[in-house]
Specification:
single chain; alpha/beta; 9-stranded mixed sheet; 7-stranded mixed sheet; 12 helices
Length: 389
Amino acid sequence: MSVTALLDGPGAEVLAAACAEYRPGNELQLVEKLRRRYDATLVTTAVTQAALRHRAVAKFGPDAERMYFTPDGLEQATRTTVSTHRAARLAATLLGAAVVDLGCGIGGDLISAARAGLRVTGVERDPETAATARANLSALGLPGEVLVGEAESTDLTPYDVVFADPARRADGRRVFDHNAYSPPWSFVTQLLQRTACVKVAPGIPHDAIPEGVEAEWISDSGEVKEAALWSGQLSPGTSRRATLLPGGASVTDAPEADSGPVGRYIYEPDGAVVRAGLVTAVAAAVDGWLLDPRIAYVTASTYVPTALASAYEVLEELPYKEKALRSWVRNQGIGTLEIKKRGVDLDPAQLRKKLAPKGSTSATLIITRIGRDAVAYSCRRVTTSFPVA
């Protein structure tokens, strides 16, 4: 049954009842209870929707309580922090512009764009998903329209900006090859010849990005979420950018950096910085250098707070041997062990199990490669808070 059955009348009534009483794990009991008063099929749809709303809070915050979802739509939707950042960037350049969202899904990007003062139209080929996006704009009191149609056949002439989010799933599995996107990559590159923004997976190869297009890698709370390709009036002339949410720190330049021996501190660049190939920007920010020219670790003699990286104070260098590391864990009384690694073939979970931490103290172990050799460092994480923009 479609979510449209829940928009008014008995459907809205049973949805309100389901949301009021829903708790994770009580689905079967709730269905049984509500079926005493409502149509069985309607109850199943409402309880499913209540469960989706509960899950959606992580992406949409308080808005989730009023929105409508499909399972696939929620899985693929952009979280609000990211879509708000993107909409603000669009509006800063083209406030009030007419934006068409090709493959709008359940409307997450439409919502943020409409709130930013842009005139929005969504295009979605699946009627059920299109109806969900339409319902979400209405539920949140936002202007805009959602059309059922194919991205490739949409007339783009009425719009100032095209936003596209190509499908990156096939048969329920995530697709990592940009050549397997739907619509196809050839369609995406055509869009990028005009003023457009295209959401892509963060693993997009740098050499696949067309000339004159800026690629922006975005992380949220330290987790890389996506990349966005900006073209036309939206491309400021830089080729690569890393943006770190929620604070909004952004970097575009990658100056030259030397490499050398470990200093007192090791810096682990944010994943967006690494994906964008801007690790040397961290070295410049902390007056440091690379541990190895091919590894994304920066080191420095002094501690300089930076939003671009996490910092660790180096306590001692350790032999990269299981026996020696086990002795270190035991002698230090370590019970909580964080293992960071780059450039070495190891599974941190398996190594942690072998080292058997059982004590009461905490520590961080950084294992990396310098030249041909694997090295290990006992470290203490340095915690710094940065203001949220």
